Amino acid sequence: MKQSTTNVNSSLSTQLKLFSSKFPKIPKNLFLLLITLLLLILFTDKNSAFSIRDVLVARGGKRTASGGGEELVQCPTWHPFQCPNSECIPIKYLCDGSPDCSDEYDENSAMCTAAIRPPVEETVAFLKALLQAHGKDFLEKLFGEEARNSLAGMGGVDKVAVALSQSPTLEAFGVEMKMSPTELGRMASVLQAIASSDENSGFTPNEAADFRFFVQKLQETGFF
Which residues are connected by disulfide bridges in this protein (predicted)? Predict the structure, then answer.
């Protein structure tokens, strides 16, 4: 091994002397720069070169480490959204009408709807605050009998909050929550009345005022 290293150094020294003799008039600083570049070319491991594709794509969400194990792939800051198949894309490409993930997840209807609605956690807190302030059967006025006892018949507050967040339309919400056409029609009328400050909403003025901001958010994002 030592003999091999000596041979490499001797060969390199010979090449440098030959290079220097052929270009004697090159300024010293430039000559040193050229020597540095030559050394980089000779000794740089070509397999370690940076590749954007290596960063953006990894099969199965894993990258094999040099030790034979696996490590999770983390998307870079300039392509921070990770598709289910581990591709990484810019945030700006989400929900722009043009699929960029190979499985088109970046245009998923539920995800894109949730992106423009109040966060689920805030909706959960809001619904719980209404129930705390007005009683556990309060939301029956909006959703119907299944909403009694803190939305127990609809699967609970969390389930309703998720459905409100990701359902593009009132009709889609009705399907997800298994509401009857009658319940859905009544809900549409109540929402419209609250949004327009109609006194026939079925809520008292104070109750309607508590609800109005959230209802307007639903209206602005195409829910009804």
Answer: 83-101
φ/ψ of residue 204, rounded to 5: -70, 160
Q: Which helix (H) or strand (E) holds 211?
A: helix 205-220
Residue 161 to residue 120: CA distance in whole angstroms: 6
pLDDT (tens digit per residue) in 116-171: 999 999 999 999 999 999 999 999 999 999 999 999 999 999 999 999 999 999 99
The total number of structural domains in the chain stands at 3
Q: Which domain holds residue 62?
A: 52-107
For the chain, strand residue ranges (E) read 62-64, 70-72, 81-82, 88-89
C-alpha span between 220 and 214 (Å, rounded): 10
Based on the fold, state whether residues 40 and 63 are members of the same structural domain. Answer: no
Question: Does one domain contain both 120 and 215?
Answer: yes
Q: Is the pTM of this model over 0.70?
A: no
Enumerate helices (H) and strands (E) in the chain, giving the number of each.
11, 4
